[in-house]
Amino acid sequence: MFEALVAQPPDALLGLIKAYNSDSRAKKVDLGVGVYRDADGNTPVLKAVKAAETILLETQDSKKYLGPEGDIGFTTRLEPIVFGARHRLAGRLAALQTPGGTGALRLGAELLHAARPGTKVHLGAPTWPNHAPIFRAAGLAIETHPFADLATQAVDFDGVRAGLARAAPGDVVLLHGCCHNPTGIDFSRTQWEEIAATLAARKLVPFIDLAYQGLGDGLEEDAWATRLVLDAVDEALVAYSCDKNFGLYRDRVGALTVIARDAREAATTATNLAALARVAWSMPPDHGAAAVRIVLERPDLVAMWRAELDVMRGRINANRAALADADPGLAFIRDQRGLFSNLAMTKAQSQALSGRHAIYCTGSGRINVAGMQPGDAGAIVAALRAEGCL
Ligand code: LMR
């Protein structure tokens, strides 16, 4: 059986974690995997989450199965955060808890394949390297169009327009709701408005990946584009992650919401999601989602979580300003949002950054600005200059 298998290369991003951990140099900078770090380089459990976990520990009286939908209180409490307090989608939503945003993307892909086998998904390049493999693994077809030009650090909107013009009615378009991974470049309001109108006019189905809400400009601000698109279209999917904004990375907390045309289609979709989850993971792990639900049920914990989110966002944007101030060639980083920016560099240059300077970023030049500690900007800029990246 297994003799037919071909060895797979380790995942490049996860490999970076190992490489960084095994580097014994006293001073090293981890700009690799997308994890928030505080000024001391730690990724602590949020206080609001700790408080919710304490309540959970004291009050949970059973670990019996919940069902393939997971914690319905969790998905219900997320709704106003994502779609707005006065959203008009009631009755058209089919939502279920998933193991992280990745689980939501994969389950959404499985649903698309069940609804229309071989559906084509349009991806802007560059995008998170796991997007295409997830969709392909579910049997979907991929077509890419340019999204951003790293030389100019700007959206290639002609490329996006051309990509959407090639799409056929019923095709799916993957969109980053905010804090684009890997570039930190988001569409402007005018561009989002044009995209929403094009999706609606051409009957394209948006699949929005919303993994960093609150880490760009604020909870409401970061959901603006998602809400605009959902107002314009009849059908959509939203893959949500609480990994970053609740700091729950390894607990894998996410949700998939499908927006259907009407209540009947939403109900049928919900049965399909439950059936697909049953054969994938049966039911999602409970702990992290239960902690998020408890935070969202209690105004005191919501206030604590929002304050912690403000601190994280403030630090990310201060790191952006520090890099932009350190070299005019990095000025664009100030206006980008979320954990990432993508510098134009070769793989050899990124290897030289880690090999010679103990500064770790991905082979494609993505840096996690939340990985910097105070005072790192100078060393990063010096290393980038030394390796010809600036
Ligand atoms: C990242 O892009 O670094 C994160 O989303 C972690 C991951 O799973 O790739």
Structure description:
With 390 residues, the chain is of the alpha/beta class. The protein folds into two domains: 10-44 and 313-386, Aspartate Aminotransferase, domain 1; 65-297, Type I PLP-dependent aspartate aminotransferase-like (Major domain) (Aspartate Aminotransferase, domain 2, 3-Layer(aba) Sandwich), CATH 3.40.640.10. Helix content is 46%, strand content 15%. The strands form four sheets. It has a seven-stranded mixed sheet, sandwiched between helices. It has a two-stranded parallel sheet with strand order 1-12. It is globular. 47% of the residues are buried. (2S)-2-hydroxybutanedioic acid binds next to loops.
What is the overall number of helices? 14
- The CATH architecture of the largest domain comes to 3-Layer(aba) Sandwich
The order of strands across the largest sheet is: 2-10-9-8-7-3-4
Sheet-strand content, in percent, reads 5-15%
Distance between the terminal alpha carbons, to the nearest Å? Answer: 51 Å
Helix share bin: 40-55%
Low-confidence stretches: none
| Main beta-sheet annotation | 7 strands, mixed
Spell the H/E element sequence: HEHHEHEHEEEHEHEHEEHHHHEHEEH
Report Rg. 21 Å
Number of beta-strand segments: 13
The total number of structural domains is 2
Give a short overview.
The chain has 390 residues and is an alpha/beta fold. It contains 14 helices and 13 strands. The protein is 46% helix and 15% strand.
